[in-house]
């Protein structure tokens, strides 16, 4: 049965016109509007749940496995109870540490080492050979009876080159030898805290010390790769020609290639590459002389206020690789034959040194004496990863670049910073989508974000079970994923028109089409009403 | 009320409070610092000989920031046309700021990062947001961080709410402000000083909504920004009024100058500029009177002496003892490192027919 109204259409005089207007309506409804909607609405794949990550990040706790080994006959149970009951962790500051104490006697392998070794240096080295003692982030505290080891006589605590610290204690007593008023447990905890966050020494490590800016330098380490660019500037061009055969060049090569890249353990933290280049004619002939303060006898003092000009002059001459970030270390070698040593001089404080650092860029080292490069390069590298430029007095071994516990502490800091940056990147994408409505999120980007969230969660879980290495590997990947997601060029797939322009784009197309359409709709309605 | 509802309400309120506290903490973490490095993005968006003055404008600022210590690798210079080498330039290799040829703003070494048809809206936005295409060299990237103060100088032909690029496209003030918001969200800057030298320049800063940006425009909405004077030897106008006076002012500024930003606001009064210089200060937190000009136009790196007097030497261990260590490398990437990235190519290959 055809409804009455439809027969009306069937009998309609202008059948073709009616059909065409129906066709237009169908095309507009089924094709036009969906296409318009599709092309003006940015494609957005669903984002991961970032708030859960935010909540999780607030509950990061770093579990620290600490083994206290007593060598004498101290009352272990009492010490264990005291540590477990009173020192559960450290929740001050931004990071929470949860201590997992283990108090025990020497095991068989350790006993052999202690019996066989002559000195604490040897013990320190041999203990590090044990596979069980090489876990990242795991700390060992050895309580050594007083006067048994010569190195410990004058000091109550010594920090080893690996993950060990040695505390000298009196026999039969739970008190440390030197400071009678402090209980041993407290000294142990202080030692642990130092090993977790290597403190800056009270001595003047930077001559013009301001608030420590460890976070600044740590941002260098976030990408896990860095190019260290050593620019050699020689005062005497004649000497530069022979430099390649000189003893200094050999020294430079050994320190950077072998001692730093291979032996320092830096590869645990970052993929460092070192490039050395000779910069000829970097400075105008009398540049140095024109910026000298009133010289001391035999020494030239270069004003620190003129360092920016010096840096700019050198940096405009150097060649850089196409990399994300480089640490520029300029090594200035004064002429051996004719000129006196050069130092940087801070006029306001009257201090001088042959090395300066500038945050985010690197530094300048003047190679006056033979050992300057050795000492200077070490200090720069320690400064680069946010450590004190040199070891404190209570370090057992001082001829390494860094101790393993220091490196562990930096790795932990970088892990936490990477997690924080991952979170802030993901959060900022989420916030941006709310503010800038035309951002496109492709499936690939959404996947990367999901991946970053997942890895961050996992990394935090690893921190909670004292697996620093696993946590670091995951946080590196999470950081990378979140960064590539944020900086992906596809996020700029649409330019940011104001919304009204969307209509402007389509309006000229729709207008001529819509005029006859509106006319026929009007016609249809009229026919139906008849 | 149901106990469960009450409990849920309490829980949600508690969680919300926690989240707010956390983000406040994160904000403080990033905001507590002052700036540590300086960058400059200098854009001349117009081409053709009769726009000589726009190139002179941008090179004037380039000259000043470079002289005041921003290194070339932190200056992104975009020049849409090459005036110094234009065949109509009677003195090739020069761009002067006035008809008496006082200052050759082209100088001896200019590093142009984006030139000619590379100066596009897309490239500019990509540069700001950091979303550059893969393989973009470092010199074409703005590698700023939360400690960077950025000077952004735009010159060209503009109208209300847009700046024309290359006679073919324009950037709108909405696009610009959204780009700044993206930079803010990713903490790519500490503070921005945006200077626009175009007609109706005020409008470029009018849509901004991200914090810590100060916008200076050479003219009000509805006003033209005028050129200063012409040079009969080149046949066109040499420089625009606002930048002419800006350069005159900046030439007297030295690295250790105590001039403040608010001094810079009054460099071009209406009687010489003819247009009205506008300043948008509401997004900027500091008082411009207390902001040294060199916080944007210069770069005074923090220099610290490193005391090496009590540092100890590193000793190199015997290599044979350390075979275990020397064979190890950074593990994260070691599985997918491409060992031979570059193929060696024989410069004199033996040809076989």
Automatic annotation (TrEMBL), chain A:
Q: Which GO terms describe its cellular component?
A: GPI-anchor transamidase complex
From the UniProt annotation, give the residues forming the signal peptide: none
Topology in membrane: Multi-pass membrane protein
Tell me its family.
Answer: Belongs to the PIGS family.
What's one Pfam family here? PIG-S
Q: Where in the cell is it found?
A: Endoplasmic reticulum membrane
Q: Which domain of life is it from?
A: Eukaryota
Q: Keywords in UniProt for this one?
A: Endoplasmic reticulum, Glycoprotein, GPI-anchor biosynthesis, Membrane, Transmembrane, Transmembrane helix
Q: What's the name of the protein?
A: GPI transamidase component PIG-S-like protein
Instruction: Please tell me where this protein is predominantly located.
Output: endoplasmic reticulum
Q: Pathway membership of this protein?
A: Glycolipid biosynthesis; glycosylphosphatidylinositol-anchor biosynthesis
Q: InterPro entries annotated for this entry?
A: PtdIno-glycan_biosynth_class_S
**What PANTHER family does its record include?**
GPI TRANSAMIDASE COMPONENT PIG-S
User: What's a BP term from Gene Ontology annotated to this protein?
Assistant: GPI anchor biosynthetic process
User: Which regions span the lipid bilayer?
Assistant: 16-37, 503-525
From TrEMBL, chain B:
Where does the sequence pass through the membrane? Answer: none
Q: Which Gene3D superfamilies match?
A: 3.40.50.1460
* Key words of the record: GPI-anchor biosynthesis, Signal
State the active site: 157, 199
The record's annotation in Pfam families points to: Peptidase_C13
Q: Alphabetically, which GO biological process terms does the record hold?
A: attachment of GPI anchor to protein; GPI anchor biosynthetic process; proteolysis
Q: In which pathway does it act?
A: Glycolipid biosynthesis; glycosylphosphatidylinositol-anchor biosynthesis
- State the signal peptide span: 1-21
Gene Ontology terms: cellular component: GPI-anchor transamidase complex
Similarity comment: family membership:
Belongs to the peptidase C13 family.
Name of the protein in question: Tick legumain-like protein
